[in-house]
Amino acid sequence: MVFRRRFSLPEKKTIRIHVAADERYDLFLDGGFVGRGSERGAPHLWFFDSYDLTLDAGPHVLVGRVWSLGLSAPRSQMSLRPGFLLSPDDDEGDAPLLGTGTSDWEGKLLRGYSFSPPFTHPYYSIGYNVTVDAGLLEPEWRTGDGEGWEPVRKMHSGSNAIERTRVGGEHLLSPSVLPSPRFSSWCRGVVRHAFQGDTNGRLGSGFLEDNHQPELACEWDLLWKNKSRFSVPARTTTRILMDFQDYVCAFCRVVVSGGRGATIQIHWAESLFCETDDMSTDGKDQLGAREKPKGNRGEIFGKIFCGIGETFLPDGRAAVEFDSPLWRAGRYVLITICTSDESLEVESFVLTDTKYPLDICGEVRCDDPRIAPLFDRAVRTFSVSCHDAWVDPYYEQMMWAGDGLQNMLFNVVVSRDARLAAKWLRLLWASRLPSGLTCARYPARDNLLIAPYSLYWVQGLKEYAWWCDDMALVRELLPAAREVLMVFEGFMGSNGLLGRLPGWNFVDWVDGWDTGIPPGADSGASSILNWHYVLTLVHMAELEESLGEPEMAARHRRIAARCAQGTIEAFWNEERGLFADDVSKANFSEHAQCFALLSGVLDEKMAARVAGSLLTAPDLKQTTFGFTHHLFETFGQIGCIDRLVQRLQPWFDTAKLGMLTLPEAPEPSRSDCHAWSTHPIFHLVATILGIRPDGPGFRGITVRPQLGPLKFIEAAVPHPSGFVRARIERHSGGIRGEIHLPPRLSGRIISGGKEIALHGHTAFDLPCPANNRC
């Protein structure tokens, strides 16, 4: 739908307006773009955006394009009912002039858009492919011109999401909590393959080096650089494969002339796929992409393209503009143009890059030359995953409870803007099911439950309390965190163990674990889930103590001790010095040992045995990208930084595979861009350099450096009042360096049994930690 309000002003004026739509809108003033929304939310927490319009005297027109796609929309898009709301801030003076419920708005259906399922993919959630038919389009809608406008039907005015002053199926409105997205023109990229031939001829499924036409590639490149048009003769098929040489999230806009009866397909992919016998050639295969090989992401020859995107249908008119309501993501774009009896000219092909305006100001450097490119790829991965939520850009665009902990920890060491972290906490809080557990992902049209993900949400609340100065939010969400732990307590048996938890008990993408579920988790008790519960109780006890709640802290510790005792009795293997994954004691993993050690409840002797076995047992199931955060935490706790650096090898190997971002899982990885894999940068800062808050609000700092095999490491870490800057280097007698703290921040550095107070600028020379090779 498109809505318009024509009005006139007697004199120049600035008017503040608030805008929301179900599901999303684009707002235009006098044909010029104003903004896009609504920020991602839920019906009971529906966000509105605010704009200040500076208006000259005379006539104006406001236009809002609103799309409501239902099941065709991304799965993260929730909806109550289609609608558009524009409310001036001045209820008395400007509402009769501009308000959607108080002035004469008009609207009409925008024809020409249709939607179809993309390739069938079990993990695909970002909405349908879009087809735009120019024969049905009305190009004048942006300026409010054209015919067919009718008075709109006024519905409800929305309710205050805090006060909830009305009932009856209305959107509960709340101000947007994030800044407007950053939009910019994307101009980088090269044509990797270009081919043009008779429409009746077969292009072939793969890309072959011997049918690449360099002259055609140069022609498209000139169009891409906005230096000329691109002509396609009649009865011809043209295929252009663009490589942006980066990961891009963007809206696409194409302007064409002529070409009646032609089709223009613009499809996106993270990578091309190696051609296998069970893959069709039209991109419509049963693409279970966790099993489909991609090979080196920078290679294209001998591979096939399976992608998602838009189809545009020209009608022969001049300067027809096509666009899509959905942003797309990936590294590659395939443009396929098939003309009929009329030639076509592509006048422009424009991508508008979109992302959250995150200011990356943290820095990390060390003597290992592999770290700098890893830092750059981690920053790119995180940047393109930040929108109006933390998302996997290509396959899902969902905000997961289980990814948020790693996302937050990377966020806080590279930027002081933690608003996405706060939104993650608040929306997962709002997602709670009748059981009291959070949804596994939210916002979402379905209610997927992964019980362990609720524990990550509780851990995330504690980390947010430590790294961010926002105790008001922490106190607000504290009762819900307590409830999550009490729900888990309800699954404890008389033996102190958690029984089978409801939902999908995913832990990690481990080879041999069915859909990421560890042995025992779906049939009885799992030591991993039990130790995870113990660890979360310990974290919650620390948070309660910091907030002056010693009674609640004592309760959490008491339950943790009971569960830990039951877990030790059921899963401890004395001969191996390890905790088994299941009660049969047939399966062992790094995961169980990590959570057991991190909980801090094991006695010294048992902890030493577990640590030793973790390092030497050859048959443990190994952690993969996301869960390895907990392994790195464990290596830091037991002083094995050499092993931590060794286990960074899978991250370094992704560069050898031509990846420009960090993947979700080991090969064959479904997603090539997954922000939970950025956590090694956090560990460079917080585990190797050793910078961590010593309590809530980052009001104090403790530095425990463990350089391991590194000769030096330095970093600038954002702090609410400035930067913590540190450089530490190894020498034959220990470590030395200097630390600069922002004003009013104090702390301490600890190494080798020695401690030095920190404030302002401090230089130091200390022995190495006793349990760590310098």
Summarize the structure in words.
- 24% of the residues lie in helices and 28% in strands.
- A hairpin with a 6-residue loop joins strand 28 (691-693) and strand 29.
- The chain has 15 helices and 35 strands.
- The strands form seven sheets. Strands 9, 10, 14, 15, 16, 17, 18, 21, 22, 23 and 24 form an eleven-stranded mixed β-sheet that branches.
- Residues 279-290 have low confidence and may be disordered.
- The chain is α+β, with helices and mostly antiparallel strands and 774 residues long.
- Helix 10 (590-599) runs antiparallel to helix 11 (604-616) and helix 10 crosses helix 12.
List the helices and strands and how they pair.
Blueprint: E1 2-9, E2 13-22, E3 24-29, E4 32-37, E5 46-55, E6 58-67, E7 83-88, H1 95-98, E8 106-108, E9 113-116, E10 129-133, E11 150-151, E12 159-160, E13 172-175, E14 182-186, E15 190-198, H2 214-224, E16 230-232, E17 236-258, E18 263-269, E19 273-274, E20 303-304, E21 308-313, E22 320-323, E23 328-338, E24 344-355, E25 363-366, H3 371-384, H4 404-414, H5 419-430, H6 451-467, H7 471-489, H8 527-546, H9 550-571, E26 572-573, E27 578-579, H10 590-599, H11 604-616, H12 628-638, H13 641-646, H14 649-656, H15 679-688, E28 691-693, E29 700-703, E30 712-719, E31 722-731, E32 734-740, E33 746-751, E34 754-759, E35 761-766
Parallel strand pairs: 5-13, 10-21, 12-13, 29-33
Antiparallel strand pairs: 1-6, 1-8, 2-5, 2-7, 3-4, 3-6, 8-11, 9-10, 14-24, 15-17, 16-24, 17-22, 17-23, 17-24, 18-21, 18-23, 19-20, 25-30, 26-27, 28-29, 30-31, 31-32, 32-35, 33-34
Helix pairs in contact: 4-5, 4-6, 4-15, 5-6, 6-7, 6-8, 7-8, 8-9, 8-10, 10-11, 10-12, 12-15
